[in-house]
Amino acid sequence: MAFASMKRYDNRWPARTRTLLRAMQGRPMALLILVGLSFLNLCSEWPGNLSRPAFVAALDAALPDSFRGARQLLFDQYERRFPRIPTAQPVTIVEIDDETLATVGQWPWPRNQLAHLIDLIAAQKPLAIGLDIYMPEPDQTSPDKVAANLPKSSAALAAGLRALPSHEAILARSLRAAPTILGAAAFDHAAFNTSTDMRSAPILVHGSDPLGRVQRFDYVLASLPELQAAAHGQAMLSVSLEQGVVRRIPVVMGLGDKLVPGLPMEMLRFATGSSAIDVFADTSGMQAVGVADVLVPTQPGGDIWLHFASIRSTLGRYLSARDILEGKADPERIRNKLVLVGLTGAGVTDMRTTPLGELVPGIEIQAQVIETIFEGRFLRRPTWLKWAESAFILMFGSAIIWYVPRTHSRLAALIRKVPKATALLGLSLHLLNLLCCFYIFVHFGLLVDAAAIFIILSAVMGCFFSPSLRVEEQKKADAVIAQRDQDASDRSGKSSSP
Hints:
Elements: H1 2-22, H2 27-44, H3 54-62, H4 66-81, E1 91-96, H5 98-104, H6 111-122, E2 128-131, H7 143-148, H8 155-162, H9 167-177, E3 180-187, E4 203-207, E5 216-217, E6 219-221, H10 225-230, E7 234-237, E8 240-242, E9 245-250, E10 252-255, E11 258-261, H11 263-271, E12 277-282, E13 285-291, E14 294-297, E15 303-305, E16 318-320, H12 321-325, E17 338-343, E18 351-353, E19 359-361, H13 362-375, H14 383-403, H15 410-417, H16 419-444, H17 450-496
Parallel strand pairs: 1-16, 1-17, 2-3, 2-17, 3-7, 4-12, 5-10
Antiparallel strand pairs: 3-6, 8-9, 9-15, 10-11, 12-13, 13-14, 18-19
């Protein structure tokens, strides 16, 4: 008995759903879907000029992340269909690759060996040398460290070793003599050898303080203080991973209560002879970062969307450290260049996935940031664009809700005559939407979210499309029954006639 009652209760839902869809020709349901999905879309990418309420964050975390995932996949497709073609090559990557490791020895090298490489690079007059290498611990092959491990019977040898300069001192001398910038790794938790501060160039804020908006860390894995003091700058090395893919790169970050630059901006600061980095911000967050006459438009969080070039088009920037150590490198590949030094050997480098689906060394991403700044070809998704998309969705969705259910409109007549034509019309409009958004991406560098437009307007249109099909099917069924009754009546009339 209870089962039968429950079954009757469950059967009410399809009937109630059909009633709700047919009420006022489906307009209330369509309006509810339009407003609800638009709000969820807004929650998945909350505009930077509004403070994000706690319930919005909770709602975004609780619901499936369909809008953000679809948006990211769409933007990846933009880049895959139209990757950036480099027009300049301001960066040379000196890679400590497998060939170099096979010649010199396994990593980490003694610091005096790294100092020798830096001296050879500096002799070719680069604009700046950025080291994608962390050195938070003393070199255990340094003479004083070796002396400490010798037996007491080798006291004379130990004394001679202690009289030699440490490998840190040798490297510090090379860092001081060369235009070097040290990289540091950002951490959001304490780890072995992390600290809460590092030496960095001053950042001048013009406008509101953006510290609360930028990507912020509490700890950093930096090189030894002796090496930091010798280098001409320090910078953070960090990328933003979204589902394992690097799409955005912070150019300015927060470390504790201060702003610190990313490696590309710090190298540009030193190369242009600037004493500080300028940050321009308002109440919505960061708007731009500048050094000298270079201005980089940013997202409110201090990051940039990077328009990636294929690794196949950038292989010419790589120069093996072995060639430099053996004196075989062309000096023109280093002179007046921004040089990045890092590991690319198998097992000793961090590999990252780009929107192009390519796996590249982490140092390649830093090089592409510098290259993008030189070319001035930025991808942008400003706050106003999100509002413009939302306004378009609401206006176009409202037009659909007002026009489509009208029984005397041309579209209604088309639906009654050819129901499949509505689907073809919808697909054509969505294709036009995608083509327009791709055109804006190619010619203006704006990332327009065609995916949200497609998802929301398709759901709104579906509120009218499904009931229309059911009405047409019912009309056809009624016509068949009527024809069948007419045929039966005709047959009965003929049989009763004399």
